[in-house]
Amino acid sequence: MARTGRPKAELILSDAERAALEGWVRRRSTPQAWALRCRIILACASGASNKDVAAQVGSTPHAVGRWRKRFVEHRIAGLGDMPRSGGPRTVADEQVAAVVKRTLGSAPKNATHWSTRAMAKETGLSQSTVSRIWRAFGLQPHRTETSRLSTDPSFVDEVHDVTGLYLDPPERAPVFCVDEKSQLRALDRSQPVLPTMPGVPQRLTHDYVRAGTTTLSAALEAATGKVIGSLHRRHRAEEFKKFLIKLDREVPQGLDVHLVLDDHATHRTPAIKTWLVARPRFHRRLGRVSKVDLGL
């Protein structure tokens, strides 16, 4: 009985094509997907059916038929990835380059920086297109960052000193990063907070009562992460001295204490200097202290 079914396309290889396909199959650096396509074409050239080739190379008859047809129509070039379906590209490279150049090298009239709408109006592109170009090149013209260079001739030595304390603190000498956060709002709820109960979440009122402001002084121990803090009504040298006294009480006697402080006025008054001189175990280090380091 004659075999029925869709006739397969006849596939005949030239000597150059066969040598190229066999070379790719033998080469270890050939990608597996490309090597599989080469084995399929070599097996098809022997006259085997798509089903037999699929069983031989570990693929499916449908895939074998697709690569057979692609090779017959386009030869070796047909084994590569063909262009996908979809609309043609509407934004040329020159337009992308113009958006990037204009964003980096100019500013709009009556504005400090470009917005997507302003750039779209200027270039004739859509706002979404401008947004995609900015995201692709990491452009954020609405953001600014500030920096400050110190003119202190001993700045580099101070940086080395503070960095060395953080990275390699001395034995039996805790290192504290000290700072204050003033003008903290002291708020309280107008009604008592109802605690959590089985099946009932914590409940609190939407309004609150203002109780003025407070100042938080805190010292972060670099080695352990322990924070010693105290609250004060005002932010003066007198309150900072009280905080130092508390720190002196909580740190065991017999240990040297390294304090990394900024150059705030409350840290360098005569009363503070006198207090530090009277306690030789306290060593003051000048450094820029970030409130992020203190978790404030």
Question: Topology, please?
Answer:
Layout: H1 15-26, H2 32-45, H3 50-57, H4 61-74, H5 93-105, H6 116-123, H7 127-137, H8 155-167, E1 175-189, E2 208-221, E3 227-232, H9 237-250, E4 257-261, H10 270-277, E5 282-286
Parallel strand pairs: 1-4, 4-5
Antiparallel strand pairs: 1-2, 2-3
Helix pairs in contact: 1-2, 2-3, 2-4, 3-4, 6-7
Explain this structure to me?
The chain is α/β, with parallel strands linked by helices and 296 residues long. The protein contains ten helices and five strands. It has helices spanning 15-26, 32-45, 50-57, 61-74, 93-105, 116-123, 127-137, 155-167, 237-250, 270-277, and strands at 175-189, 208-221, 227-232, 257-261, 282-286. A five-stranded mixed sheet has the order 3-2-1-4-5. Helix 10 links the parallel strand 4 and strand 5 (282-286). The relative contact order is 0.07.
